[in-house]
Design goal:
The structure holds two protein chains of two kinds.
Chain A (H helix, E strand, L loop, with lengths): L2 E3 L4 E5 L4 E3 L2 E3 L6 E7 L6 E7 L7 E2 L2 E6 L4 E6 L8 E8 L12 E2 L3 E6 L1
Parallel strand pairs in A: 2-12
Antiparallel strand pairs in A: 1-4, 3-9, 5-6, 5-10, 7-8, 8-9, 10-11, 10-12
Chain B lengths: L4 E3 L2 E4 L5 E6 L6 E8 L3 E9 L2 E5 L6 E5 L5 E5 L8 E8 L8 E2 L3 E5 L1
Parallel strand pairs in B: 2-11
Antiparallel strand pairs in B: 1-3, 3-8, 4-5, 4-9, 5-6, 7-8, 9-10, 9-11
Classes of the chains: A mainly beta, B mainly beta.
């Protein structure tokens, strides 16, 4: 079974600095999807960034970027220029490739990293 | 476009009772998934539905059930509630194309006394 591990329960960073959240996963699949979700205190889970395993290029979304190391099964999230609004729980998630357009969409989540932004 | 809507947002039940939670997906999304979130177990997959059919089920007892209606709205039911069922129940919907990004609702916070 696929597993996702986030080894940092809590992280803190000074406002405007850069922070990296770690995630490792285990799978026997060669093609899959990886996601980082953010859950602020309001509770709604929001997608931050996604990575398709077949793409070698690391995904980037504004201040958020990933370091995807497929051989090492590592998928870290880098947040640049941290802002107060970045404070949240961050979850790394894995999903098997879609067998059909609408099958096997189950996400396996890590245990999360609570990120605190220090003003 | 309205997001995923879950009702009720908060509810309190006692052991042995049953509860029904509702989820309205984003318009046009035909797939709905449910997750349970607790401090101890984290986020765990409950089930997924597409076109009124359950396509996948997580490792939960039979007390947890769900269904999906023809308008894609979904409900989940928990019978004979136990204290350990206290959790945030999250619903998510997605389109049937692309990377299949999940869009989550704000959740229903269930407290079992």
């Amino acid at each position: 079974a696929q597993t996702v591990t986030q080894s940092q329960p809590e992280m803190s960073v000074q406002e405007a600095e850069t922070v990296t959240l770690s995630c490792t996963y285990d799978t026997s699949e060669s093609d899959y999807y990886l996601f980082w979700y953010k859950q602020p205190p309001s509770r709604q889970m929001i997608l931050v960034i996604r990575q398709e395993a077949y793409k070698q290029q690391n995904a980037t979304e504004n201040r958020f970027s990933v370091n995807f190391q497929k051989a090492a099964k590592s998928f870290s999230l880098k947040i640049s220029d941290s802002q107060l609004g970045d404070a949240a729980m961050y979850f790394c998630a894995y999903r098997d490739p879609l067998i059909t357009n609408f099958g096997n969409e189950k996400l396996t989540f890590g245990t999360g990293t609570r990120l605190t932004i220090i003003p | 476009k309205a997001g995923v809507t879950q009702t009720p947002r908060y509810l309190i039940k006692t052991r042995g009772q049953q509860v029904t939670l509702s989820c309205s997906p984003i318009s046009g999304h035909r797939s709905v998934s449910w997750y349970q979130q607790t401090p101890g177990q984290g986020l765990q997959f409950l089930f997924e539905y597409f076109s009124e059919t359950q396509r996948n089920k997580g490792n939960f007892p039979g007390r947890f059930s769900g269904r999906q209606f023809s308008n894609s709205r979904s409900e989940m039911n928990v019978s004979t509630l136990e204290l350990g069922d206290s959790a945030l129940y999250l619903c998510a919907s997605r389109t049937s194309t692309g990377s299949g990004e999940l869009f989550f609702g704000e959740g229903s916070r269930l407290t079992v006394l």
